[in-house]
Design goal:
Helix 1 packs across helix 2 and helix 4 runs parallel beside helix 6. The protein is built from eleven helices and 20 strands. With 425 residues, it is of the alpha+beta class. Bound molecules: adenosine-5'-triphosphate.
Length: 425
């Protein structure tokens, strides 16, 4: 990408207003933003004055100012305009309420009945600004000095912590970098997420497997909050996929509320969901349900756009970003030296031709052996922390008595472990 020779364009942003910028998929020149005067933030990350921020292609963002500012834009973004109507005041109110709970938790952190910080779950339909709200709440918390746990249950996520198709959690002690985003490299984020690999684009595609993995992630998050009082007091912010707001996704939503011990559900941009959830949780005093408006700036992203962003995200995992490039290397390994497994059915056939009593749902969490190398070409594989030898030793009490793990033992071992990273074949 080349630097633009164009001169800087000036935008005056009034107090409590924002400058919305969208970059297209094939920007030939780099779009840059710079704060000329006043104060401004991008999804809660404050901008430093006179620093040039590069905006990647396929990006949609808002530069919000509480007190007013002058912004400079270089290049020709697909869309750029200022808007005065934003829900930021209500988002700030939510942050202040959460902060009061964090302070209470800190005040009683050493007592016998130590309080936990707020555990907030953000739900809503597609493209209402759930991820952006999570980022704002996360950044505001970190700015006040908290070590903020963030869990991302959105496996479709294109701006999440790890590879699309995974669910993850991480403790943030730095604000999200404007250029790198949530999933920036370890250098920019200073945090390494714990990742469970689901491998499908939608939670309902293999709901049983997805449900198992969110249960495991909740256990890990719980263990971390128990072992670190700073993390416990800050609480947890949880982003969810849009499918949670559909009627067939309610079971997963309810499971997440229970397993993550959620204390507040923030419903963004859908009255009906708010009313359904208020009714469902009205007898549960531990959970409060709040509704928040969708920002007029949130942009709908079509399938093609999401696909392009997902591909860019996979590429970014291996090659890094412009500021922190990575140098991936390739190695040749014998297929026989690897244990490659996939989740789900080994044969894809209609239920009508399967034996009587065959339970397709039960197969959703079954790990099957990949016998042929050919189907792996051009695919991304997750490298699991599951250690078969260690598991065999543990099962047999120190001396290996069986030649290998059974399929069921291997399945529970793999689903129990997070992933170490990813490789591209
Ligand atoms: N105020 C705003 N102005 C301009 N763009 C915005 C604004 N708020 C969010 N966006 C952009 O709109 C897009 C959708 O927002 P976001 O990802 O937060 O929605 P979502 O509800 O999490 O979507 P999904 O359901 O697909 O996960 C993103 O590209 C985001 O950067």
């Amino acid at each position: 990408m080349t630097e633009s020779n164009a001169s800087w364009q000036t935008f005056v942003v009034d107090p409590e207003s924002e400058l919305r910028v969208e970059t297209g998929p094939k920007e030939a020149v780099l779009i840059k933003l710079s704060l000329n005067s006043g104060t401004a933030e991008i999804f809660g990350t404050e901008l430093a004055p006179d620093v040039e921020y590069s905006i990647s292609p396929n990006n949609k963002l808002a530069v919000f100012s509480w007190t007013g500012c002058t912004m400079l834009v270089k290049g020709s973004p697909a869309v750029s305009y200022t808007a005065g109507e934003t829900p930021m005041a209500s988002y700030l109110n939510v942050h202040l309420a959460l902060e009061a709970q964090r302070r209470d938790a800190e005040a009683f952190s050493t007592s016998e009945n130590a309080l936990a910080g707020p555990r907030v779950l953000v739900v809503g339909p597609s493209d209402v600004g759930k991820s952006s709200l999570c980022k704002i709440l996360l950044n505001y918390s970190v700015k006040l000095g908290h070590a903020q746990m963030f869990a991302d249950l959105d496996c479709t996520e294109t701006s999440g912590l790890s590879m699309p198709g995974s669910i993850s959690a991480s403790v943030f002690s730095r604000v999200v970098d404007v250029e790198e985003g949530m999933g920036g490299t370890l250098v920019s984020t200073g945090t390494s997420p714990i990742v469970f690999y689901y491998g499908y684009g939608e939670p309902l595609e293999k709901a049983k497997l997805y449900s198992k993995l969110i249960g495991r992630l909740a256990e890990v998050v719980d263990a971390k909050t128990k072992s670190d009082s700073k993390v416990r007091c800050a609480g947890v912010i949880i982003n969810t996929p849009s499918q949670f707001s559909e009627s067939n996704g309610y079971a997963l939503l309810t499971q997440a509320v229970e397993e993550f011990k959620v204390s507040a559900i923030l419903v963004v941009g859908q009255e009906r969901l708010y009313s359904d959830l208020s009714r469902q949780f009205q007898s549960n005093e531990q959970v409060s349900v709040l509704k928040l408006a969708k920002s007029g700036g949130v942009v709908s992203r079509d399938k093609a756009f999401r696909k392009a962003v997902q591909s860019a995200k996979v590429r970014e995992y291996f090659y890094g970003t412009t500021r922190y490039p990575l140098s991936p290397f390739s190695s040749i390994v014998r297929f026989d030296d690897l244990a490659v497994r996939r989740v789900g059915e080994s044969i894809v056939a209609p239920s009508s031709v399967m034996p009587i009593g065959y339970d397709r749902k039960a197969q959703e969490t079954k790990i099957v052996k990949v016998e042929s190398f050919d189907i792996l070409l051009n695919s991304v594989l997750a490298v699991t922390h599951a250690d078969r030898l260690e598991a065999l030793l543990a099962l047999s009490g120190g001396a290996i008595s069986a030649p290998a793990l059974t399929a069921d033992q291997e399945t529970s071992l793999i689903l129990d472990k997070n992933v170490a990273g990813f490789v591209y074949v």
